[in-house]
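Lesson 9: reading folded outputs for more than one chain in a single document. The general rule is that every protein is listed as its sequence immediately followed by its structure tokens, and records are never interleaved. Here is the first one.
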Amino acid sequence: MIVSTPGIVMHATKYGDTSLIVKIFTQQQGNQSFIIKNAFRKNNRFAVSYFTPLAMMDISYDDHSKSSLKYLKDIAPHRSSNPLYYDPAKSSILLFYNEILYKMLMDSGEDEVLFDFLQEEIGKVHNATENLAELPLRFLLRLSMVMGYFPEDNYSPENAYFSLQECRFQHFFVEDAGFLTATESRYLHQLLSQHAPVTASRGLRVALLKQLVSYFQMHNEQIHKIDSLEILSAVLH
């Protein structure tokens, strides 16, 4: 059976001297792995440059094979997903998104809601002209909603400390026990309750970003260390 579906590149790794194994999150069948033979030859119609992190494309492949590795029949890369070589901020954001998603969706099956969400979020990065530093924070919050552990916004002067474990604001604070500080908690509340950009210092944004990564690690056992976090924190101002 020939399957034609949009897809998002999750990971690509060299296989042997000439081939490439690519994992693509597809709209119709979830994660699928493909082998691209002779990928590094100049005349290969499936150029290595197509398979950059979170590149979007329309693909077709034969799903008849019993092997876990399939062969692509055709690729139509989306023009809007060309690599952002000349924009280090956007490139860093997409690398961060990719690392989170690749680790979180290692064995993901079909999920059209998640797929459509990711297409929209990747498009926001490509089209953004300002407020780049806030994008990763809002992305993680929207992603948590899709994944089913969106923070409850019960913030008040009495409930001023967010608990990563309980997913809600509490009236007490326990240091080193998965609680955000009062300042971090208030900033999180502002992001949850306001659509407009929120003014915050670089230090506060970075601190909350790290806390939100911890939040995902706490609620998804497949996510461990996120290496791109430090790079992203250094690039965004």
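And here is the second record, again sequence then tokens.
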Amino acid sequence: MKHKNKLSIKWKFFTYLMLFTMIILIMLWLSQVVFLETIYKSIKINEIKTSAKNIAKHIDDENIKEYADMIGEQNELCIIALKMENINRGLELVSVDKLNNCLLHNTDRRSKFFLYDLAVANDGEYIQNYRYDQMRLGFIESDGQQSGEFESIIYTLVFQNNIDEEIFLMVNSVISPVAATVRTLYYQLIVISISVIILAVILTIFFSNRISKPIRKINDSAKILATGSYNVDFKASGYKEVSELAETLNYAADELSKTDQMKTDLIANISHDLRTPLTMIVGYSELMRDIPGENIPENIQTIIDEAKRLTSLVNDVLDISKLQSGVGDFISKPVNITETIKKALLRYNKLTEQDGYTIDFEYAYDVTVNTDETRIMQALYNLINNAVTYTGADKRVTVAQTVKNGCVRISVTDTGEGIEADKLPLIWERYYKVDKIHKRASIGSGLGLSIVKSIMDMAGGNCGVESKIGWGSTFWIELPLRK
């Protein structure tokens, strides 16, 4: 796999954190240097308009003069309110002067009514900017676009009071130049930016290493695991997610180790099972070829029996491969499971007659289920084969059919040595075999339990085992009754 064009988590974290730092610095520069004057003017104009509208709301109050004085004091405003009697005459209601060189109080009557005309022409609201002219030593009209100069703003508002009298309100404020402030902030931000970048680089390197280090260790260990070395240890350190990943990989490594060992054991067991019938087939064939008179039915039957055993082993290996890969078909239909068990037991007549085995079948009445008869019979064969292989000296096997809680349970009991409690959960797994010495079965291949579990998974049933050392084992399968 090629990963040349992909960044590691360390450098991705470093890149993202540095990008975040640069965005914050850019926002600071834009707000504190580039657009500071624009922002300041917008705030000041909004402040003037808000103050004027608040005064307009209280224009009919008895204490309007005190209220206007308070507004002017707080915001450094010059305020004049006139009750208009006609277009050229007004009665002064409010007069507040909190500015030096207030334009409203230092302008003539004609200029005030000129502003009134402009306000009326603009739907009762108008704002005019003025800048200080050094040549004339006074304020002149401005378009409000100049920067770095003293500006004076007059906001005019024409409205009706509660008794429909026309009120003309003028508010004046001064905007101081912010060039000196901008220069100060400029040098401050240079120092701050350099300091923040240096600090951000140090912090991002530290945290990126801290975050990526446990992941890199796990990655290195995973590469070792991929080579087939299952003794690798994933260190469960760092953050919660990393620790959980390490624990999961440790569990996976342990399970892979067990699976690899069981696979090795299975290959050894199958090799043993294959070698035995092949040796007997070759031996009896050479005997019949080389020694006159040995071509007798008994020898031929031995060759046939061993060939069947060899075929059974190969079929079991193919079956478990198909079942566990989900390739095998499962055709469900109504099946009399009691009759199916009886048919399966007919196969063992020769075994009971010649070798002295006793196989009992206990049941109360016939039971019907929806299942695949061929697959269920295959599961029964494997359970009975397993019981015959490991039963005790009395050579007794008991098959029982019981019904409980809407399910039928078929159990197969032997009288053998039993299985240790810690091995019971493992006997259904692939490649696992309790008998490491590999006792050769009278019937079967030794893969039966894995086949049984796979069939029951496909049938939607359950399987299990109960065992006690010295008392034998009971293997069972369970299927829901047909509704």
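What the second record shows: Confidence is low (pLDDT under 50) at residues 134-139, 436-444.
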